[in-house]
Design a protein that fits this description.
three-stranded antiparallel beta sheet; 54% helix
């Protein structure tokens, strides 16, 4: 596998094939949703059997943490941080 990151797309090379994804955050969000589903379904299945029922709550916790990351990903995607340096004019600098 070879990942090539660019500003507006993500390229994934698997053997002779290359997949292009236009929006990085949409891919990350979709992968996050798939993992959430897998953790909750696997946790539910593990709770059905007495020998593995102790692992179910850990998968529920992992799925819940991934659910918490969804709004964080949206904030990162929709927001930006800028550093602006304001210039203050004083009476002394105004005459120069």
């Amino acid at each position: 596998m070879n990942f090539k990151n660019k500003k507006n797309y993500l390229s994934l090379k698997l053997g002779q094939f290359r997949f292009y994804f236009r929006k990085r955050f949409r891919i990350i969000s979709t992968a996050n949703d798939i993992l959430i589903g897998l953790f909750f379904v696997t946790g539910s299945i593990l709770n059905l059997f007495p020998d593995t029922s102790s692992m179910g709550p850990y998968l529920y916790l992992a799925g819940s943490l991934l659910l918490l990351s969804r709004p964080i990903l949206r904030i990162i995607h929709d927001g930006s941080i800028e550093h602006r340096q304001e210039r203050h004019l004083t009476l002394e600098n105004k005459g120069k």
